[in-house]
Design a protein that fits this description.
Layout (H helix, E strand, L loop, with lengths): L1 H19 L6 E5 L6 H17 L3 E5 L6 H9 L6 E6 H10 L11 E16 L8 H10 L5 E4 L5 H13 L4 E4 L3 H10 L4 E5 H9 L4 E5 L24 E9 L4 H15 L2 H9 L2 E3 L4 H22 L5
């Protein structure tokens, strides 16, 4: 009997690593926006080398709708096993949870942080035919032509929307918000002249600026961007104005911490690769890849910051 029990114990011990192996099947990354946007570009750049590191396919799944809410709902309902990752923007990870009431999920209770993948400069783009050449001229033109200047966004509650509303608040203007279902259609209508301007990520507008189909009026961070060195910041005209986008990853709450740590570790290794960093630098995207605890603190701080902006500016989701 002792020999039988000893053999059984060895079988259990030998089998334990196999049972605990992760991942054993494809990992799915859900994105709440259509293909072609900055977040989609970053995810698809990371996908192949991350799959190589994990030893399993990494599937990028676009689930656009309601400014990233549809994807977040799906992420919150997924099994907490490390096989479903929600990759979001500052908009749907930090702004939407405080801007939108009666969500079916709680960003802090239903999700666990993995990492802040990267941060990206934000830019005020205008149609090339728009008469204003500076932020000051834009403000003067909008005041002289009330109701004639619109700004597009990727959807209600997203960072492009909030940046525009913050601009309204800082200038006393009432630029009309025109929401779209994603960054690509939003930018396309600025290019077509249907809308005069938009606040968007560097990566999205850069190729159109290079092709002469968009013009950079200003950047929105605290410092000028290397990719647009001649473009002033909005803060040079409106002191204190600051908007920087970031992209983060979260998983369903109660996902085993060792799996979260493995994901973060492999993501950090992938983002440190010279060829990946070079591609991101060219898009105006800076790698962050911080540990889960630091990412969680940062996301909470961002939610608190934007809650104050929303409250002070009396901004609503609609």
């Amino acid at each position: 009997m002792k020999r039988i029990l000893a053999v059984m114990a060895l079988i259990v011990v030998a089998g334990a690593p196999a049972l605990a192996a992760y991942p054993e099947r494809p990992v799915r990354i859900i994105i709440g926006f259509p293909p072609g946007g900055a977040i989609d570009t970053i995810a698809r750049l990371m996908g192949p080398p991350l799959a190589e590191r994990l030893g399993q396919p990494v599937v990028i799944e676009n689930k656009p709708g309601a400014g990233g809410v549809v994807a977040a709902q799906g992420g919150a309902r997924a099994d907490a096993d490390g096989y479903t990752v929600l990759m979001g923007t500052m908009g749907n990870l930090s702004i939407t949870p405080v801007l939108t009431k009666d969500l079916s999920y709680d960003m802090e209770k239903d999700f666990a942080p993995v990492t802040v993948v990267a941060s990206s400069g934000f830019v005020l783009y205008v149609n090339p035919a728009f008469p204003a050449r500076t932020v000051g001229e834009l403000i003067a033109y909008a005041k002289a032509n009330p109701g004639k200047v619109n700004f597009s966004s990727s959807g209600n509650g997203g960072l492009p929307h909030m940046a525009g509303e913050l601009f309204n608040s800082a200038t006393g203007l009432k630029l009309t918000h025109v929401p779209y279902k994603g960054s690509t259609p939003s930018v396309n209508d600025v290019i077509a002249g249907q809308v005069q301007m938009t606040f968007e990520a560097t990566a999205i507008g850069l190729p159109f600026v290079q092709a002469g189909r968009l013009r950079v009026l200003a950047t929105t961070g605290d410092q000028r961007l290397a990719v647009f060195p001649d473009a002033p910041t909005v803060a040079e005209t409106l002191p204190g104005f600051s908007v920087t986008n970031w992209f983060g990853m979260v998983v369903p709450a109660r996902t085993p911490q060792d799996r979260i740590d493995r994901l973060q570790k492999e993501i950090a290794v992938v983002l440190a690769r010279p060829e990946i960093k070079e591609r991101l630098d060219a898009l105006g995207v800076a790698v962050v890849a911080n540990p889960p605890a630091a990412a969680g603190r940062f996301m909470q701080e961002e939610r608190a910051r934007w809650a104050k902006v929303i409250r002070d500016a009396n901004i609503t989701a609609n």
